[in-house]
TrEMBL record:
Superkingdom of origin organism: Bacteria
Annotated signal peptide: none
Pfam families for this protein: SnoaL_3 (PF13474)
Protein known as: Nuclear transport factor 2 family protein
InterPro entries: NTF2-like_dom_sf (IPR032710), SnoaL-like (IPR037401)
Gene3D superfamilies according to UniProt: 3.10.450.50
Domain SnoaL-like: start-end pairs: 7-126
């Protein structure tokens, strides 16, 4: 399989794990040293553990992913690094309220052996201007 298709598959696996609220499978898509920058969180998360801890606190407060769809995906290969960008439509339950979000996301993957693993994720709001 060509590398672009491998990256697309790695991204699809990550989105599917997130969409199904499969915490273990979702976090297995990220390297331990992955970093995360979310517009909904006041500071960057500088490790997978930091994000896992935040996720656990969200779950304790009733957070759940109800669905997630990816569209307009693009892949840019940069040697052993790939940049995946896409639009994301997400349904979440937060504190008993269902939210429908339209966001844009960049996921950076690096080739680790034969596997593309996510090492950075940046989520932003879709600007209408």
């Amino acid at each position: 399989m060509d590398q672009t298709l491998q990256v697309r598959q790695a991204a699809a696996d990550l989105v599917a794990a997130f969409a199904s609220n499969d915490t273990a499978r979702y976090f297995a898509c990220f390297s331990e040293d992955a970093t995360f920058l979310f517009h909904t969180v006041p500071q960057p998360l500088l490790s997978r553990r930091a994000y896992e801890d935040l996720w656990a606190s969200w779950l304790a407060d009733g957070f759940a992913v109800l669905g997630c769809e990816s569209g307009n995906a693009q892949v840019s290969l940069q040697g052993d690094v790939a940049i995946f960008i896409h639009d994301v439509a997400t349904r979440l339950r937060v504190a008993g309220e269902v939210l429908e979000l339209s966001e844009r996301e960049t996921i950076v993957f690096r080739l680790q052996g034969e596997r593309w693993i996510a090492c950075h994720e940046h989520l932003s709001v879709v600007s209408l201007s």
